[in-house]
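Technical note accompanying the year-one report. For the benefit of new consortium partners, we illustrate the data format agreed upon in the data management plan: each record pairs a sequence with a structure-token string. No post-processing was applied to the example shown here.
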Amino acid sequence: MNTLVVYDSKFGNTRMLAEAIGRKLALFGSSRVMAVRDVVQDDVRAVDLLVVGGPTQAHGMSPAMRKFIHALDVSPTAPLWTAAFDTRLRMAALITGSAAKGIAGALVHAGVKLIVPAESFFVTRGEAHLEPGELERAATWAAELAEHMVAKQRVAA
């Protein structure tokens, strides 16, 4: 399995989550973690699973993430699976918004297949640090992504 984890991060929390996700996915195959500003289309073409995450800003995804997804050129012949995550305050998504839901919707609209529903990871109020246990939860989520991908690859074989 070849995975690319793309992230945007304002305070470093989403970057830490992306790195934890990337480390866990590396146990299942090739895994790279890249900031959204550094990704080019060729980076995406060579992957089986694209994991995309960013902070929730103004109830949705960041402008950099929106630009990245809008520029995606997905091959209609080779299915690309994706998963989306965000960081936000632990409150109802109706109140905080969710970048992950926006990312997931935009990716599906771009022609990518969502492997699991969007996932939120939570930060504290004030200085905006990850809540305790969120890095571990991100690693567990990444293992679940890998399990889904292994199942998809078995079916395709």
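Partners are asked to follow this layout when depositing records. The chain has a mean pLDDT of 93.
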